Amino acid sequence: MCLVWLVFSLICCGCSTRTEPEVRLGINAELTGSKPTVGDSCKKAAEYLAAQINQGGGLNVGNKALPVRLFIEDNEDKAESAAAAAQKLINQNNVLAIIGPNASGNAIPAARICEDNGVIMISPWSTNPKTTEGKKFIFRACFIDDFQGQVMAKFARQKLRVGTAAVLYDVASEYNKGIAEFFKKFFEADGGKVVAFASYTTGDKDFSSQLTTIKATHPQLLFLPNYYNEVPLQVKQARNQGLIGDIIGSDSWGSQELLKLGGQELEGAYFSTHYAPDLASPRAQKFISEYETCYGKKPDDVAALTYDAGLLLCQAIIQAGSLDRGKVRDALAQITEYEGVTGRMTFRGSGDPIKSAVILQIRDGQFKYFATVQP
Q1: Which ranges constitute the DSSP H helices of the chain?
Q2: Nearest to 88 by CA among 59, 54, 53, 117
Q3: What is the pLDDT of residues 314-369, one digit of tens each?
Q4: Three-class SS of residue 236?
Q5: Other beta carbons within 10 Å of 131
């Protein structure tokens, strides 16, 4: 039996009547809404980590082994629900810290709630700088969008050797809009020209007007910094319009659902992300193998980042030797180097790690490692 179900069901479930001290952690995830795969990966990885810790006897806090108990809230992939979930986890469940939300549009409002209440929040997947900006209690396990935008701009100019690019992005999403703007800034600073910068609004299905405008500018490349559930339709419509250049994207592509929805039209496309399962360290390979045994599928980037976020948090709790939120926050802020399943992270006085990005290419209907880009 998978250790998650054996241990988690006995020790970590929300219906526990345990009264002795425990490490209470909140999970604020997109379990329903437009990105349920993201929330599911976050939840599964958090449950796996909690079960792993509890199977080992608990977390060492001040020379006492304490069980980890998770409180899981669905933020429905809505900003207002993410904020409400954070309030509930803090005020009703009295959690020490919160992992998530993942999407930046949800993480930013939840971060405000956590910061105001002096509660640690660590986002596995939110790359927008606004999530942590000006905050003491907010951290993340991923790189940020200015780095990612620069990575893809440099990749387009120097590896794909294109001089002109078009961008199609969701203007209503903090994540999509932010990375689109960073890509444009760095692409043009490197001598390229963004010939079309077109937008749509969350929920749109017909992109023909924007793509007609884009096609008229004859771009050599199309950048789509949009979510995995949107990109396949955009790529299909782009190809039907006769756009034949390279198509590239960002870490929001990193779900197997993209491959299921996208089919042949996505073959050859590239995107930036956080780790490559086919180029993993021994520690990452162990995690990938055990996760796959437990859940019947390989962990995506959200799962791997959630695992790293949880381990970072646990390391801080151990170092603090306390369940005091302020002391754990200070211990987390003092971590300068961390080797996770998604690679090495370096922290330099903020909640944002400095870490490398990887470029994956879609080949033969699979995500394949293509290159690593250092900060």
Answers
A1: 3, 36-55, 79-91, 104-117, 145-154, 174-189, 208-216, 231-240, 256-262, 282-295, 301-320, 325-333
A2: 117
A3: 999 999 999 999 999 999 999 999 999 999 999 998 999 999 999 999 999 999 99
A4: helix
A5: 29
